[in-house]
Amino acid sequence: MTLLSRQHGPHPYFGVRDDQLVVAGKTIEAIAASIGRTPFYVYDRAAIAARIAELRDVLPTRVDLHYAIKANPMPEVVQFIAPLVDGLDVASGRELTLALTTDHSRADISFAGPGKSTAELDQAAAAGIVVNAESTRELHYLASVAERSGTKPRVAIRVNPDFELKTSGMKMSGGPKQFGIDAEQVPQALEEMRSLPLEFFGFHIFSGSQNLRHESIAESQRNALDLAVKLAAHAPGPVRMLNIGGGFGIPYFPGDRRLDLAPIKANLAAVAADAAQRLPDAQLMIELGRYIVGEAGLYVCRILDRKVSRGQVFLVVDGGLHHHLAASGNFGQVIRKNYPVVIANRVNAEPREVANVVGPLCTPLDLLADRMDLARAEPGDLVAVMQSGAYGLTASPLGFLSHPAPSEVLL
Ligand SMILES: *Cc1c(COP(=O)(O)O)cnc(C)c1O
Questions:
Q1: Cβ distance 101 to 79 under 8 Å?
Q2: For residue 372, what are the β-bridge partners?
Q3: Which atom belonging to ligand 1 lies closest to the Cα atom of 291?
Q4: 25 Cα–ligand 1 center, Å
Q5: If pLDDT is split at 50, 70 and 90, which confidence band does 130 have?
Q6: Burial of 6 by CB count in 10 Å (0-12 exposed, 13-18 middle, 19+ buried)?
Q7: Is the CB of 66 inside a 6 Å radius of any atom of ligand 1?
Q8: Domain formed by 2-44+296-410, architecture
Q9: Residue 206 CA, ligand 1 centroid: distance in Å
């Protein structure tokens, strides 16, 4: 029995009982009955905790772990994760408001994003969190806030490095990018900071997302330290914080190999030891979203109709791309591939058939499974999309076609 897919082997957190998918000890039918409606997202807190424990084993004590809220901002999820990590990264004023409801100290909350509004910068300065400044406009605006209010905003410089995270699912650095300040312009920005009433905190060097190759991640972590050491020579004060990125990926598609953490652990130990010599005041950190929550969640919908069109089976479900854009293949995929999908209440049942799973929207893009091998299913059966804990609901165009929103539960 392989739940995730034939290539990936068994799912790390979810099992099968009576041929039903089991989450947090409950069968999928029991979960659906207790929610009272479909579709829904379900997240497993034990899975999230297990994943964080695994990460703690990989990170040297000198490297902190931050959670990037945008991966899954459900308030219960954020509240559950908050005490298990060392800090939170936010990407908007609303995410900041959520982060401020946790017990984290303000210095352990940071705000990145290329288009922070003046209202968001005001909020960040008033809260006393660390702003990862992405332009000199942000530096000067924060300085004007400081002059008005008498506070001294904490500022790190987000650097657009002169290297990229190779083989990354989503490149966010190297070359021309909207993120951060180009590495070659950072010395000038640091020079300007000397005369501004800002508290220099350090550097944020994030280079990409969804990477499954440990060599690339290790290389970008080493490069981030080298770059920070070079830039530190121009800094108005000691580097107290160095965010060396994240980007750990999870397997989604046939052929994806699970990220091997052992070499990352060895590399991080070396990077941390090196940093202790070269940037003795710096607290290192990595920030992860997807890796913490992605495998701990499912999206579940119910089959409404079963149709055969010119020889192909279509299972029409009550959910789709409006709730889970990424699973439809329209959130950054170049060539559409299937997320792992199962008939959740008859996972291994025979007979099997090749079927399409489509949503209720009036567009052929509303596709959750393209000709997949599934147990033969009927209206009333449940379909589960695995690997759906990150970039699911809040990364989807919920308003499109005005269907109701799905439920969300943390078990
Ligand atoms: C999106 C983002 C993250 C989280 O990325 P994951 O791939 O979910 O781990 C972390 N930091 C920054 C700056 C981001 O933009």
A1: yes
A2: 355
A3: 9
A4: 30
A5: very high
A6: exposed
A7: no
A8: Beta Barrel (2.40)
A9: 8
Is 105-288 a CATH 3.20.20.10 domain? yes
User: Which pLDDT does position 1 carry in this prediction?
Assistant: 46
Q: Which helix (H) or strand (E) holds 402?
A: none
Give the separation between CA 169 and CA 293, rounded to whole angstroms. 17
Residue with the smallest CA separation from ligand 1 atom 14 is 68
Please tell me the distance between residue 393's alpha carbon and the centre of ligand 1 in angstroms.
16
Residue 112 CA: which ligand 1 atom is closest? Answer: 13
b/e 217-230 (16+ beta carbons within 10 angstroms → b)? bbbbbbbbbebbbe
299 CB within 6 A, ligand 1: no
209 lines ligand 1 (CB under 6 A): yes
| Residue-wise pLDDT tens digits, 304-345 | 999 999 999 999 999 999 999 999 999 988 899 999 999 999
Asked whether 288 lines ligand 1 (CB < 6 A), one says yes
C-alpha 170/C-alpha 162 separation (Å) is 16
Would you kindly state where each structural domain of the chain is located, as residue ranges? Answer: 2-44+296-410, 105-288
246 lines ligand 1 (CB under 6 A): yes
pLDDT digits (tens, 9 = 90+) for 345-385: 999 999 999 999 999 999 999 999 999 999 999 999 999 99
Pocket mutation for ligand 1, best pick of 89, 157, 159, 207 (most atoms within 8 Å of C-beta) = 89
The answer for residues whose C-beta is within 8 angstroms of residue 405's C-beta and 6 or more apart is 323, 393, 398
Q: 247: CA distance to ligand 1 center in Å?
A: 7
- The reply to whether 2-44+296-410 and 105-288 are identical in fold is no
How long, in residues, is the chain?
411
Distance 329 CA to ligand 1 centre (A): 19
Q: How many CA atoms lie within 13 A of 146 on its CB side?
A: 17
Contacts of 8 (CB under 8 A, 6+ apart): 2, 251, 256, 258, 340
Whole-prediction pTM value? 0.96
User: Which of 116, 167, 206 for mutating ligand 1's site (highest number of atoms within 8 Å of CB)?
Assistant: 206
Question: Strand 87-90 vs strand 63-68: parallel, antiparallel, or unpaired?
Answer: parallel
